[in-house]
Amino acid sequence: MSEALGWWGVPLAIAAGTMRGGTPFLFVSLGECLTEKSGKINLGLEGTLLTGAMAAYAISYLTRDSLGTVLAPIFGVVVAGFAGAILGAIHGWLAQQRRVNDVAVGIAMIIFGSGIAFFLGKPFIQPVAPQLPTFDLGNWSSLPAVQAAFKISPLFILGLILAPVMQWFFRATRWGLLIRAVGDAPEAARAMGVSIFKVRMLSIMGGSFLAGIGGASLSLYYPGVWTEMISSGQGLMAVALVIFARWNPMQCLYASLLFGGAQALGPALQSVGVDSFYYLFNAAPYILTLGIMILTCSPKKTLTGAPGALGKEN
Amino acid sequence: MLTRKHIESVVLPLSAILVALLLFGLFCLAAGANPFGVYGSIYKAAFGQWSSWQNTLIRAAPLMLSALCTALPARLGLVIIGNEGALVMGGIGAIAAGLAMGTAAPPLLVQILMALAGMIFGGVWIGIVGALRHWRGVNETISSLLMNYVAIALLNHLVEGPMKDPASLNKPSTFPLESLYRVGTIPGTRIHYGLVYGIIACIIAYILIQRTTFGFAARTAGGNLRAARIAGLPVGKLTLAICFLAGSCAGLAGMVEVAAVHGRANASLNVGYGYGGILVAFVARHNPLAAGVIAVLLGGILASGGILQRSHGLPDATVLVFQGLVFLCVLYSESRYGTIPALQPQTNVTRNS
């Protein structure tokens, strides 16, 4: 794609990657942020992401005739969210049982969620589903590479709006305060007469809804196909990303863009002929995540911004 | 002595598996397959006759070893799920050692070196996770899972680049291991000696955890970290040692896959024994001996994947769905401990008059 651009294709592809590849990170990390604010971890968002991707693609394909090629993918996105919320309900219920560890439930949900996605998604690997329409902001350029890079997804814009809204939600609304109270001091919240179970259940389901939409952005925007390899740990990296972002939605946004860019590094370098380390460059996002965790974590004190009840038993 | 508590810890996981089977049957029904036919096929493909037993046991061997990678650190209170990565690294280490030995070395020596290389590679891999946990407070679950992807990327790099056998076109692989050096099969069967490694590793792990001061120290630290620190236990050394042992078990699984099954390293290394091992460890409640038994059960289920596809038209992910259901049911059963009246120890009420 970058023949006409030469080495300029690399920063261009990385810039495009921040928007294209950053979108799933953004939704999953905002979802995980919402979940963790209520005091529970959901590692299973990797499975939710896959299920969302499959559901969105399948629905968009199945309803393409009845709804048309514009409405069908939008309906797919909505269904992906609800599919995610269903998985979230399982997680929310099970992780709140006595003596059940939420991390273990997350691992189980990764296996279960990806199993469901691969099982139901098998028939949809071949067919081509209508993709989400994009805003083409690159028409000023005659280079196809530039045009492709500036195809902005409405989901990306939705995510851009969602991050500050969630920030405001946590800071200034009654519901946001309730979630923070349940996540920081469950005993105090219980004394206020709040149902911890309900608040956590809704937070986990809401977070999984967002993760499902993140999956839809994988299959209906970029890379825009449904295969079993479509998600490679994005759901999991998002969990690490939330720690890095200190449970702050706006910082989740910046971190997601960074990760999207890192993900684009391998393919971008390959396109200009640097392909001897292609597979190693593909490990860049994981190594980046590890590096960030090593830099930001501390063995001595709890991290600033961490919900107080995180990692505690029921 | 068998107490009611022991009975409880056998009955609950078994009932969880039964419930999972039931839910799985309903799932198959919804997918348009006859659940009883599916059960029958799984049983036949897994344990129906000697040849299917052999298939099952071949798969059980890496599962046992990989399960120890989760089960051992769990005793220290760590949830490590880097099994797949450690297995892949072990496979890389083993094939590198095997290829470096040329063609004329004594086979037994080469096999020992391969096993050692695999164990060191896997051990260091999970050892890094333990070190990051201890000195930097990095969440071990997330870091170990991320390291899986790094290991797989490294494998892809090696089989596509520096170690690529040009003859392997469809499935990029390393050069094949000298056939003389391959780990053989138990006489009269198709089962390779990896199964023996697995059983021995489970027994050693059990003795280490339950019967030695080392294991006692680890369990103490896992029960209450602060108390262990106050008692002067070297928590850092324990973490590193346990993580290294855990990783070396998974690394040995990689060596077995390379040296006994595939004869070379390629993408067949990461086919899910790592994730299966996590499931085995949790179902076995992190008991190494129980892990050996559960690994045989799961090995059977994996062995039946093909027949589900051929005779019931179910996709190969069916096995994954079943694994997920078993995992979820087993976790739910954790919350039932101490709640079933028939399984509670009888309390002798003594009255003071």
Characteristic terms for this protein:
heterodimer, A: 314 residues, mainly alpha, ABC transporter involved in vitamin B12 uptake, BtuC, two-stranded antiparallel ribbon, 14 helices, B: 353 residues, 0% strand
Order of helices and strands of chain B: HHHHHHHHHHHHHH
Low-confidence stretches of chain A: none
- Number of E-state strands of chain A: 2
Give the terminus-to-terminus CA distance of chain A. 52 Å
How many helices of chain B in DSSP terms?
14
Question: Proportion of β residues of chain B?
Answer: under 5%
Largest sheet of chain B: none
- The first-level CATH class of chain A is given as Mainly Alpha
The helical percent of chain A reads: 55-70%
Determine the oligomeric state from the structure. Answer: heterodimer
The tally of domains of chain A stands at 1
How far apart are the first and last residues' alpha carbons of chain B, in Å?
33 Å
Mean pLDDT of chain B: 92
Greatest interface and its residue counts?
A-B, 48 and 48 residues
Percentage of residues assigned to helices of chain B:
over 70%
Rg calc of chain A = 20 Å
Strand content of chain A: under 5%
Class from helix and strand fractions of chain B: mainly alpha
Compact description:
Chain A has 314 residues and is an all-alpha fold. Helices cover 69% and strands 1% of the residues of chain A.
